[in-house]
Write a structure and sequence with these properties.
The complex is a heterodimer of chains A (396) and B (342).
Chain A: H1 2-10, H2 21-53, H3 84-117, H4 122-136, H5 140-151, E1 162-164, E2 168-171, E3 174-177, E4 179-182, H6 187-214, H7 220-238, E5 243-246, E6 249-250, E7 255-256, E8 259-261, H8 263-289, H9 293-301, H10 306-336, H11 348-359, H12 362-391
Helix pairs in contact in A: 3-4, 3-8, 3-11, 4-8, 5-8, 6-7, 8-10, 9-10, 10-12, 11-12
Chain B: H1 2-21, H2 25-32, E1 35-40, E2 48-49, E3 55-56, H3 58-71, E4 77-82, H4 87-92, E5 98-99, H5 107-111, E6 115-117, E7 122-124, E8 126-131, E9 147-152, H6 156-167, E10 172-177, H7 180-188, E11 194-198, H8 199-208, E12 215-217, E13 225-227, E14 230-232, H9 236-254, H10 262-265, H11 271-276, H12 295-303, H13 306-313
Helix pairs in contact in B: 3-9, 3-12
Classes of the chains: A alpha+beta (396), B alpha/beta (342).
C-alpha cells in the first residue's frame, strides 16, 4: 500500500483536460461520429421526403409483384409469372455461377502462367510474359467484347454447326452438349463418391503416418484416384445404369434438347478468367520469388528433386505471400462480373437494372445490389482469411 | 460498374433533393438558359446524331419546339443520350427537364414512377424483324417458336414479348441487352433469329445493319406503343407547357401554318389562326402559360408543324419513308387530335 501511495504522489500535477491527448482523441471521435450520423440522417430524411413529394412509390413490397419478363439463363425455376424477388434470386445465382467458375479457372490458369514466367524455358517464359502484359493492360470490358463479338460472332449459324465429338455442337448460339438424365437409384453414385472420398482421406492419413514412422511411401494419388472413380462406378452399376442421354437435335431455329451453354456466359466467363489470370500470375510469381533462394538450395542439398522441392518447400511458403492479394483478385473478379450487362448475360446487376426500370424503385434496387455484393465479398474474404490462417507459418 | 451504382445512388439521393428544392422547372430552365432533354442514344428518325454531330429526329425536334416556346429559340436545348434503363432515373432525379425518348405511355409509368406524359407524338406498335435470307420460310411472328429473340432491357417491349409468346404457347430464348447499339450488333452478328422493338424502331435499325435489304419486318403488331414526352409530377406549369407545345404543333398543321408561311399567316383574316399565333388584340394565349404570346409562332419557326417534323424525320423526307398511317391528323383519318387553343 505504501508503495502505491508513493507512486501516486510522484505523478505530475493533472494538466488541463484540453491538453490530455486521450480526452482530445475521444472528443474528436465523438464529433466525427455525430457529424457522420447527422449527415446520413440528413440524406435519408431528405430522400424520403422528396420521394414522397414526387409521388414515387417506395418500399420493398414491389418484390412480390409479377415480373412479366423472361430470363435466358435460369439456374432455378423461373417464368414470367414469377415474382421480382425470384428474378433477383435468378440473377444472384447467375452471378455466383460465373464468379465461381471464373475464380476456379483464373486460379488454375494464373498458377500455370505465374510458374511459366519463372520457367527456365525461354519461349515459355516469353509467352507467359506477353500474356500477362497484354491482359493486364486491357480494360476487362474490352476483353469481354473481344470474346463476345470477336470470337463468337465468327462461329457459324445453328444450321452449319461445328460438330464435336460425343454429340456436342458449337455455333453462334453457344456450346451444346448432351444432357444427363438420371433415373432412379442415382443417389448410389453420389453415395459411392462420398465413400470414395472418405476412404481416400483415411488412406492418405495412414500413408503419412507410415512414412513418418518407417519412411516407406505409399502411392496415395493413384489409390485415391481409383477409390474416387471406382466407388461411384460401382454405385452406377449396382443401380442398373440409370442414365439416359438427351442429345441436342436440330430444331427450326436452334438446336433443341441437350444442354446449352450460351455465348453470353461463355464470353463473360472466359473474359473474366483470362483477365484475372494475368493478375494472379503476377501474384504467384511474386510469391515464389519471395521465398528466399536458400530454401531451394537447402531442399536441393537434402536431395529433393526440383518438382518435389517446388511442391514441398517452395509452394507452401509462397502460398503465405500469395493468399492475401489473391483474395483481392477474387473480389475483383466477382465485382467485375457485373460487366455482364454489356453483353446481355442475366447476372444480378442486369436483372436488377431491368426491375429498376420496370418498377422505378431505384433506391431500393441499389440497396439490394449493395447488400448482395457486400455479402458475397464478405463471405469470400471470410473464407480466404480462414484459409490464410490455416496456411500461415506455424512457428514452434 | 461500381461507379454507375454510386452514380445512381448519388443521382437518386442528391438529384431528388435538387429537383424538389426547385419545383418550378420553368424558372430553373430560364435561369440556366437552356432545356436539358433526355433522348435515345441512337435511333434513326427519332434521335440520333447526324454526320455533323447535330442531334436530329422526331423526339429531338419536339424538345427544340419546347425550347422555342420557352426561349423563342429552338437551339437553346442540350441533349442527354440515355439508355432505356437509365431514362426514368434521369428524369426523376432532375438531371433532365423532359424525357423525349420514344417512351411508351403506361399506367405504371404515369403513377408509380412519378411521371406525367404530355401526349403521344408517335403512335407505334411492337413488331419483329428477321433476316429473310437466312430464314426464307418465315413470314409470320407465329412461326417464331424456338427462336432466339434480341430485345432491349427495361422496355415495355421486353414485357410484351413475354406476354405474346406465352399467350400463343410459343417457346423462345430472350437475349436481353441494355443498350440499343449492343442489341443491334448482336442481331447483326447472327446471335438472334429475330429482333423485336417498336415497328418504327425496326425500320430505323434496319438502316444501320450491314445489309439492310436482307431483313424484313414481319406483319404482326403485338402491342400498342403510344410514344410521347414525359415530365416529372408535381410541376403543373411545366407539364402544361410541354403538353401545349404538342397540341400547338398539331393545331398548326391543322390550320395550315408551316415554317415557310408563319409570318404571312399572322395577317390572316381567320380568327382562329390569329388567336393561335397570339396576334389577337389583348391576347393572353401565351402569358397564361408563363410564356410570351408569340410562343406558337416561335415553335413553328423553329421546327415547323407536326406534319413537317414527321415528314422530315421519319416520313417521305427521310430514309425511313414511314407513311403517316394512324399518325395522320384526325381530319385525315388518323389519331392525332390537337385540343383547341383558345
Amino acid at each position: 500500500m505504501a508503495v502505491q501511495h508513493v507512486s501516486r504522489a510522484q505523478e505530475p500535477a493533472k494538466a488541463s483536460l484540453l491538453y490530455d491527448p486521450k480526452v482530445r482523441s475521444i472528443f474528436f471521435q465523438v464529433v466525427l461520429l455525430l457529424l457522420l450520423i447527422a449527415g446520413v440522417w440528413w440524406i435519408v430524411d431528405n430522400t424520403i421526403e422528396n420521394l414522397r413529394r414526387s409521388n414515387i412509390s417506395t418500399g420493398f413490397d414491389f418484390l412480390r409483384g409479377r415480373a412479366g419478363f423472361d430470363i435466358s439463363d435460369t439456374p432455378i425455376q423461373y417464368s414470367s409469372d414469377s415474382t421480382y424477388g425470384r428474378a433477383i434470386l435468378v440473377g444472384f445465382w447467375n452471378t455466383i455461377i460465373v464468379a465461381v467458375a471464373g475464380i476456379v479457372t483464373a486460379t488454375i490458369l494464373g498458377f500455370i502462367i505465374g510458374v511459366g514466367r519463372l520457367s527456365r524455358n525461354w519461349l515459355l517464359r516469353k509467352i507467359a510474359m506477353v500474356y500477362v502484359e497484354t491482359f493486364r493492360n486491357i480494360p476487362p470490358l474490352l476483353v469481354i467484347f473481344f470474346w463476345y463479338l470477336g470470337v463468337l460472332a465468327v462461329l457459324p449459324a445453328p444450321r452449319d454447326s461445328i460438330v464435336l465429338p460425343f454429340g456436342s455442337y458449337l455455333n453462334s448460339r453457344g456450346f451444346y452438349f448432351p444432357r444427363f438424365l438420371w433415373g432412379d437409384g442415382a443417389w448410389l453414385i453420389v453415395a459411392g463418391l462420398v465413400v470414395g472420398i472418405g476412404l481416400t482421406w483415411f488412406v492418405a492419413r495412414r500413408a503419412k503416418a507410415r512414412q513418418m514412422t518407417t519412411g516407406q511411401r505409399f502411392p496415395v494419388f493413384w489409390t485415391g484416384l481409383a477409390l474416387i472413380v471406382g466407388f461411384p462406378l460401382l454405385g452406377f452399376a449396382l443401380a442398373g445404369f440409370p442414365l439416359t442421354l438427351d442429345f441436342p437435335k436440330a430444331g427450326t431455329f436452334n438446336l433443341t434438347g441437350g444442354f446449352n451453354v450460351k455465348p453470353e456466359f461463355l464470353s463473360l466467363y472466359l473474359a473474366l478468367s483470362f483477365y484475372t489470370a494475368a493478375f494472379i500470375a503476377e501474384i504467384v510469381r511474386a510469391g515464389i520469388l519471395g521465398v528466399s533462394k536458400g530454401q531451394s538450395e537447402a531442399a536441393a542439398a537434402l536431395g529433393l528433386r526440383p518438382g518435389t522441392a517446388l511442391r514441398l518447400v517452395i509452394i507452401p511458403q509462397a502460398l503465405r505471400i500469395i493468399i492475401p492479394p489473391l483474395t483481392s483478385q477474387y473480389l475483383n473478379l466477382t465485382k467485375n462480373s457485373s460487366l455482364a450487362v454489356a453483353i446481355g448475360y442475366p447476372d444480378l446487376y442486369a436483372i436488377g437494372g431491368t426491375i429498376l426500370n420496370q418498377t422505378g424503385q431505384a433506391i431500393e434496387i441499389v440497396v439490394i445490389f449493395m447488400i448482395i455484393y457486400l455479402s458475397i465479398s464478405l463471405v469470400t474474404s471470410f473464407f480466404m482469411n480462414w484459409f490464410n490462417a490455416r496456411m500461415a507459418l506455424k512457428e514452434r | 460498374m461500381k461507379n454507375t451504382m454510386i452514380g445512381i445512388i448519388g443521382a437518386a439521393a442528391f438529384g431528388v433533393m435538387a429537383s424538389a428544392a426547385s419545383a418550378a422547372t420553368l424558372d430553373d430552365v430560364k435561369a440556366k438558359g437552356f432545356i436539358q432533354c433526355g433522348v435515345n442514344t441512337a435511333l434513326a428518325g427519332f434521335s440520333a446524331p447526324d454526320d455533323k454531330g447535330e442531334w436530329t429526329g422526331l423526339d429531338v425536334d419536339f424538345c427544340r419546339a419546347v425550347a422555342a416556346a420557352v426561349f423563342g429559340d429552338g437551339t437553346k436545348v442540350k441533349f442527354t443520350p440515355l439508355s432505356a434503363k437509365d431514362r426514368f432515373t434521369a428524369l426523376q432525379s432532375g438531371e433532365i427537364d423532359i424525357l423525349s425518348r420514344n417512351t411508351t405511355w403506361t399506367i405504371n409509368r404515369d403513377t408509380a414512377l412519378g411521371l406525367n406524359f404530355a401526349g403521344v407524338t408517335y403512335f407505334d406498335g411492337q413488331g419483329f424483324m428477321i433476316n429473310a435470307k437466312k430464314l426464307p420460310g418465315v413470314n409470320s411472328a407465329l412461326q417464331l417458336s424456338g427462336a432466339s429473340v434480341c430485345v432491349q432491357s427495361g422496355t415495355t417491349t421486353e414485357l410484351n414479348l413475354a406476354d405474346y409468346f406465352k399467350a400463343n404457347n410459343l417457346e423462345y430464348n430472350p437475349v436481353v441487352f441494355e443498350k440499343v447499339e449492343e442489341a443491334n450488333a448482336a442481331y447483326d452478328a447472327g446471335r438472334c433469329d429475330a429482333y423485336t422493338t417498336d415497328q418504327s424502331g425496326l425500320y430505323g435499325i434496319r438502316l444501320t445493319l450491314a445489309s439492310p435489304g436482307d431483313h424484313v419486318v414481319l406483319p404482326e403488331i403485338i402491342s400498342k406503343e403510344p410514344l410521347g414526352p414525359a415530365v416529372r409530377q408535381g410541376d403543373d406549369q411545366w407539364f402544361d407547357i410541354v403538353k401545349w407545345t404538342y397540341f400547338a404543333l398539331l393545331n398548326a398543321e391543322e390550320l395550315g401554318i408551316t415554317k415557310a408561311n408563319v409570318e404571312e399567316m399572322k395577317n390572316s383574316p381567320n380568327p382562329e389562326i390569329k388567336r393561335v399565333l397570339g396576334v389577337e388584340a389583348e391576347s393572353k394565349i401565351g402569358t397564361d402559360l408563363g410564356l410570351t404570346n408569340d410562343w406558337v409562332v416561335n415553335i413553328v419557326k423553329a421546327t415547323g408543324n407536326y406534319g413537317e417534323i414527321f415528314e422530315n424525320n421519319v416520313g417521305s423526307g427521310s430514309p425511313l419513308k414511314i407513311s403517316r398511317g394512324i399518325n395522320a391528323l384526325w381530319t385525315k383519318g388518323g389519331l392525332q387530335y390537337g385540343v383547341p387553343i383558345r
